[in-house]
Amino acid sequence: MPVRRLRAPARERDELVADVDERHPPGASAELQVEDAAVEAERLVDVVDLERDVVDADKPRAIRHAAIFAAVDTYLTIASRRETRRYSDRPLPPDVVDRILDAGRLSGSGSNRQPWTFYVVESRELLEQLADVVYEPGNVRGARVLVLMTVRGKGPVSFDAGRSAQNMLLAAWNEGVGGSPNGFTDADRAAALVGAGEEERPAIALSFGYPQRPRDPSSRPAVEWSRRAKRRSLDDVVVRR
Predict the structure, then answer these.
(1) Structure pTM?
(2) What is the pLDDT of residues 128-143, one digit of tens each?
(3) Measured between alpha carbons, how far is 15 from 51 in angstroms, rounded to an integer?
């Protein structure tokens, strides 16, 4: 059965920084200092426990950032990712699917409106039906999981949907899961198949699965993955003034 709204289950997180000094006593309300408040404000909604994530402001920012994110190579994930349209029969673990969905949920959006709903489709019967209303049916028929994202409201909601979708695709690849986006030949039929509300409009369908032909991102550096990508050169797309 498709899931209309999904909240990732609460999980224990490794504590990023152990130091909590007198400026942030246990139980007190913590004020998180950010480099760019305008950009980060929308991410601080409904944060329950900031104490665990307090960073020593006396340390140089570069050192603090490197210490926290040393194990994460976002650029390698971006540079090594390719669209995956052929999937193996290996099922996706529920916790992996939840992390992919949570990456979409955490995406920024205009005025923090979060206009999306994620319909998670695993039923083979429903996947077959949805394959008939997208541009690339094979991507859907072979997927282990399909996420059909709808949006509602006015304004740049399609842009918000794109931000959320890219988050999910990158989070998936970080888990070794391939993915590919798909558009709709019959958006109304797609909405009806998943039981979307009247105010919801299908924005994009994302197919996910372990690649039939796996690739190892660590097999070459990010700069080499970038060089091999079939993309216009940086000089061709960048105009500096």
Answers:
(1) 0.70
(2) 999 999 999 999 999 9
(3) 10
